[in-house]
């Protein structure tokens, strides 16, 4: 179970950092794609905070302790933040979003596999759903860049 808790906490930490990072892009994006990107990132940070809540509360249901501070999130997240990224171009922000989403998807797969090892079907289900939504966003941003 401790492997599952470790990876679930990495997910929560990553979701917290992703939430902030998506705001950074939402606030600072400039250029002719402002309206679509600004709105897309808003939709994504709203979704990621709901997902974070779901995973954290699943950890509690399993009698674990979810990450609940910014410092733990920064330490354990697979996505890193960078203050200077507010100066990226719109295209670079999309590329950075895509890079983060791919790391997030890899982590979701790892979490699903850890849940499968524990025969925890409810947690497996959470991550099947999460991965399908991350995959959808990866497709959107790849199509935007193409
Ligand atoms: Fe806003």
TrEMBL record:
InterPro entries: DPS_DNA-bd (IPR002177), DPS_DNA-bd_CS (IPR023188), Ferritin-like (IPR012347), Ferritin-like_SF (IPR009078), Ferritin_DPS_dom (IPR008331)
Record-linked PROSITE patterns: DPS_1
Source organism of this protein record: Atopococcus tabaci
UniProt-recorded name of the protein: DNA starvation/stationary phase protection protein
Residues in coiled coil: 38-65
UniProt record similarity statement: Belongs to the Dps family.
Pfam families, per the entry: Ferritin
Residue span, Ferritin/DPS domain: 7-145
One MF term in the entry's GO annotations: oxidoreductase activity, acting on metal ions
Source species taxonomy: Bacteria, Bacillati, Bacillota, Bacilli, Lactobacillales
Matches recorded under Gene3D superfamilies: 1.20.1260.10
PANTHER family assigned: GENERAL STRESS PROTEIN 20U
UniProt entry keywords in alphabetical sequence: Coiled coil
């Amino acid at each position: 179970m401790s492997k599952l808790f470790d990876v679930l906490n990495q997910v929560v930490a990553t979701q917290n950092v992703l939430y902030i990072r998506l705001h950074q892009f939402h606030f600072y994006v400039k250029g002719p794609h402002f309206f679509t990107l600004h709105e897309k990132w808003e939709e994504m940070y709203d979704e990621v905070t709901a997902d974070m809540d779901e995973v954290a509360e699943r950890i509690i249901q399993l009698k674990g302790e979810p990450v609940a501070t910014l410092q733990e999130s920064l330490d354990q997240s697979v996505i890193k933040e960078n203050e200077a990224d507010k100066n990226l171009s719109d295209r670079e922000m999309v590329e950075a979003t895509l890079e983060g989403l791919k790391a997030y998807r890899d982590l979701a797969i790892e979490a699903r596999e850890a849940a499968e090892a524990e025969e925890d079907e409810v947690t497996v289900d959470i991550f099947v759903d999460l991965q399908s939504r991350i995959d959808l966003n990866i497709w959107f941003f790849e199509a935007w860049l193409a």
